[in-house]
Amino acid sequence: MPENTLTITDNRTGQVYTVPIEDGTIRAMSLRQIKTDAEDFGLMTYDPAFMNTASCRSSITYIDGDKGILRYRGYPIEVLAERCTFLEVAFLLMFGELPTQTDLKSWVNDITHHTMLHESTKKFMEGFRYDSHPMAMFVSTVAALSSIYPEARQVHDVNNRMLQIKRLIGKVPSIAASAYRHNMGFPYVYPDNDLSYTENFMNMLWKMVEPKYVANPTLARALDILFILHADHEQNCGTNAMRSVASAQTDPYLATASAASALAGPLHGGANEEVLKMLDEIGSKENVPAYIKKVKEGHGRLMGFGHRVYKNYDPRAKIIKWTAEQVFEVTGRNPKLDIALELERIALEDEYFVKRKLYPNVDFYSGIMYQAMGFPPEMFTVLFAIPRTAGWLSQWQELINDPEQKITRPRQVYTGYNQREFVPMERRTAILV
Ligand code: CMC
């Protein structure tokens, strides 16, 4: 019997099957041969929420959740956060290697020259209600770019694909900043090509009447580090949405809008906004034990805690905690930090959290830092979506180039009626009243 195989005995029939094991997985399709009779459809796996199903082969991001390890293309996140810029990391995610000086110059130049929004996109954004959630504006506007660039539908044209990738990475900060300015009632600011990616984003957010915006270098670097940390995170809910939608050969604007929609949820990228609401609700350090007791009794969750994959300290949270300290030296300390630190201290000692391996995740400290920089909580998820766009697009490229991938189409276990006889109107029973 070959070593890398699994032998399955079907106790319904006594039949024995041998299926290959490859990379620690068996192919779900290997189970289809397991049938009770010729009419039987064959065995399937049932895995709601993909708890134990690999949906693709990927060489982009590696996570070891038990050890708290995160690597992009083999490079530890800590090293990338210390030594690279966000656009350098975006290049690494996209092409698999760190850029040379010449490559980086050309990549940055191309992205910088795609930061401008078409005037009709600007007009589209002006139509949003004054108090629209910035994430709703972000998602809708990214989707609307599909109407400006219809050629993006040619997803199998390599050059066309790269053009849309550069456009999207270039334009997401402009859309995010316009959403912010829209809420503030300020005119949108045009990009400034002399500035770096994050400095230009800050320019589009905060420039008022000064002729040239000058970003604080500590804050610009902090934002760049946060962008690096959020750039990719393998097959999470948003990335799975990106791959699933793009598998239908949908254009990258619509697929990215779908991924961003998933990110907007409070259990995903929306958690950073929820952390701030939670810290507001707690109010002061003294109230932390009572809040933790409430969570343990099943009333709500400790937002910014827990992760499907990390069963150890999220490595990104450590870097954010350090970066936040740098930011506070410029902005002054956010008083919510004391509540957060106390929450973390108690939770990490409490049996409930220890037993379930619940540690602070990426969202726990990012909001406190963003608030100190002047962002309202509604903008936090948008700040997550900007760099994640680079990750989504890298995953999209990988999907398109993977000969094994097809349109995504999970199976279901049907639990409804068998064929029924039609019920005429006079014999039906009311459901709504
Ligand atoms: N506070 C209190 N209890 C929790 C928490 C929490 N934050 N997270 C999980 N638990 C408990 C949960 O009640 C369950 O307990 P029991 O076994 O007694 O029923 C156990 O831990 C396992 O939870 P789960 O819901 O089965 O775990 P999951 O892997 O499905 O959920 C999660 C992962 C991130 C959705 C969840 O931990 C959560 O809701 N956290 C709060 C929201 C949050 O911070 N999200 C950001 C995630 S990181 C950024 C990103 O990737 O988007």
Give a short synopsis of this structure:
Helix content is 50%, strand content 5%. The chain contains 17 helices and five strands.
Describe the structure.
With 433 residues, the protein is mainly α. It has two domains: 75-268 and 389-400, Citrate Synthase, domain 1, CATH 1.10.580.10; 271-373, Cytochrome p450-Terp, domain 2 (Orthogonal Bundle). Helices cover 50% and strands 5% of the residues. It is built from 17 helices and five strands. The strands form two sheets. Strands 3-4-5 form a three-stranded antiparallel β-sheet. The protein has a two-stranded antiparallel ribbon with strand order 1-2. A hairpin with a 4-residue loop joins strand 1 (5-10) and strand 2 (15-20). It is globular. The termini are far apart.
Bound molecules: carboxymethyl coenzyme *A
Terminal CA distance reads 64 Å
How would you sum up the major sheet?
3 strands, antiparallel
* Mean pLDDT reading: 96
Kindly give the count of domains: 2
What percent strand?
Answer: 5-15%
User: What structural class results from the helix and strand content?
Assistant: mainly alpha
* The named CATH superfamily of the largest domain: Citrate Synthase, domain 1
CATH architecture field of the largest domain: Orthogonal Bundle
**Helical percentage:** 40-55%
Series of H and E elements: EEEEEHHHHHHHHHHHHHHHHH
* Rg, Å, rounded: 24 Å
Low-confidence stretches: none
Q: Within the CATH hierarchy, at the fold level, what is the topology of the largest domain?
A: Citrate Synthase, domain 1
Class of the largest domain in CATH?
Answer: Mainly Alpha
Query: Largest beta sheet: what is the strand line-up?
Result: 3-4-5
What gross morphology would you assign?
globular
